[in-house]
């Protein structure tokens, strides 16, 4: 589970922004009726869902993008070498190009709380640290600061929980996270945390990954059919099988270290064939990818992803949760997380229908606004202590009470001037 995420100097994010999944102390009547929106950990309540609202170009997507980049660093930094530059951008104004970008995450694995952070320049790691709470009190696993001295002993400081930690450090370049290298070198705590980010912190729907689709379909076929029927689909059966098909594959050859040839060639390859069968005539099949609507294809992928996430108490990160989905389906997704045990969802949306304190707590709503210096500001409805549960949240948002909406001056006069030039 995720308890907190902090980011600074990523894309449009300049100053630190915080996503806090720890539930605030709220005692209203509405909140008491929303007990399914939280779960308990270590005598505290944790939010299952957070929805982020904001105008276009305010930075909502950049928050999701920054989190995805940081998780990708954990998973892939052992592949970094040479003159590689990390695949992100810093805030471009105010001399931020010369300052590090910072990531902090407070999370729980196997019922133990961890705090992990790192800071990066465009081409190297600057700092990194990992602490945890094995017996309710914070304990250092390691800290790292590449600015301290020239040797690994100068730069690293270790607790007692990783075996032969300096061996790992000696194999860790300034482009690689120590956590990633320690996992690769089979160190116990590091392996558990790497697997958490690889398998449990899901950075988006599974897309068209054929292996994942096949595995999840085998595990959840009955649940998937039921989920689609609840969503008012008339699909009564689905089959998935591997077939040999003619297709294009990239054929690359090398001479020494130089690319000699790269061309697309016809080849026989194995691919998934997914067929749907409808209530009108269950004997007739439809190819999912060529004969079904975009909405049906999206619903198939979404539901297959979410069934695994809620069954295993994973975390899902989604930008624009309403993309290609009807409002009722989005509410269905939110309700699936409410009904789950400890699954979590962090998403962005423009759909104001869900701005209701009958459905969500105040601390589950976040707003994004672009400040005067063009940087992204993130804040919670909980920060507005004068906003009562009895007020119309959707109306207040659309009126601009929390900023985070575009102010469009589309008077007829302005539009005529635009059209006439």
TrEMBL record:
InterPro entries: ATPase_AAA_core (IPR003959), P-loop_NTPase (IPR027417). Residues 51-355 form the ATPase AAA-type core domain. GO terms for molecular function: ATP binding; ATP hydrolysis activity. Gene3D superfamilies: P-loop containing nucleotide triphosphate hydrolases (3.40.50.300). This is Putative ATPase. It comes from Saccharicrinis fermentans DSM 9555 = JCM 21142. The lineage of its organism: Bacteria, Pseudomonadati, Bacteroidota, Bacteroidia, Marinilabiliales.
